[in-house]
Amino acid sequence: MNDKKTLVVYYTSSGNTERVAQTIAEALGAHIEGIQEVKPTQVDLHGKGLDNFLSMGKTAFRAITDRPVGIQSLQRDVADYELVVIGTPVYAGSVSSPVRAFLHQECGKMKAVAFFCTGDDPANEKVFVQMQGVCGLEPLTAFPFHAPEVRQGAFQPQLEAFLAQLGEATARP
After folding, report:
1. pLDDT at residue number 2
2. Of 59, 30, 27, 33, whose CA–CA distance to 44 is shortest?
3. Exposed, middle or buried, 37 (CB in 10 Å: 0-12/13-18/19+)?
4. 96 lies in which domain range?
5. What does the H/E/C string look like for 89-154?
6. How many CB atoms are located within 10 Å of the residue 161 CB?
């Protein structure tokens, strides 16, 4: 797997997706880059107060209604990589708007993709269907990381399963 030039791209709001992305990038010897919104919305999944409630509502609404969001250009060109691993948090059962914007923007340049997500639902298959629909590429693998385990730092078994699936998929001719 390490002989492929790989880029890990992710969006995070709580830090969970970033934590997983960094661990995947380290394991694969890959480059890593975060997706940044042009006008970020502050989201605290465990925060309190009206402002946080409204921000969460806005973020979830944009995700489930496919509302566009502006993102900053990446430092790296996805076309330079054989594999792009893309990570998203899950909002109201949907892919995050920044990741959706990234997929729309970069879909024609990517050669191969793998997906992962972080969320409280341990399955989240709907998110991967959405991601594939936007980018038009079937992922080599798609893996849901369970956010409570990520928050506790107890996601090593999930990471190993993801890497094994990815290794099997890239070993196929």
Report:
1. 45
2. 59
3. middle
4. 6-171
5. EEECCEECHHHHHHHHHHHHHCCCEEEEEEECCCCCHHHHHHHHHHHCCCCCCEEEEEHHHHHCCC
6. 14
Q: How far apart are CA 63 and CA 97, in angstroms?
A: 5
* Helix, coil or strand: residue 48: coil
What mean pLDDT is predicted for residues 122-135?
A: 88
**Beta strand pairing call for 83-91 and 113-119:** parallel
Distance CA 131, CA 2 (A): 24
pLDDT in tens, 3-21: 579 999 999 988 899 999 9
Can you give the CATH number for the domain in which 33 is found?
3.40.50.360
Query: Within a domain: residue 145?
Result: yes
Domain count, the chain: 1
Q: What is the pLDDT of residues 135-165, one digit of tens each?
A: 999 999 999 999 899 999 999 999 999 999 9
Question: What is the C-alpha to C-alpha distance for residues 7 and 41, in angstroms, rounded to an integer?
Answer: 25
What does the pLDDT look like over 38-78, one tens digit per residue?
765 665 555 566 555 555 554 555 555 566 677 888 999 99
Interatomic CA distance for residues 103 and 86, integer angstroms: 9
C-alpha distances in Å from residue 60, one per residue of 69, 104, 160: 12, 19, 30
Least confident span in 3-7, 84-88, 129-133, 157-161: 3-7
